[in-house]
Amino acid sequence: MSTTYRIADDVAWVSREDLDHSSAPAAYAVLLPDGRPLTFEGSACLVWLALADGGTLEEVTATAAEMADAAPAEITDDVRVLIERLLAAGLLREQ
Hints:
The chain is of the alpha+beta class. It contains 4 helices and 5 strands.
């Protein structure tokens, strides 16, 4: 069985398109109640947005790759590293 990732319940976040419809992808997140605000820009934002729906590494990578118009194989390692960092920071949960 593959591990599924999802944004933690105690994370508040918003994407730039929700705020001002800018063309540059960005999302802002904070671990409540006392976390430090984080900004995800560019490809990191695309991975974050893919994580919003939850999924396995392969599913998140495929979604992010589609948004970036890239091949999943080209970004899998970067997605894995970002997921590991987000897990360590408490922003993601494993299921």
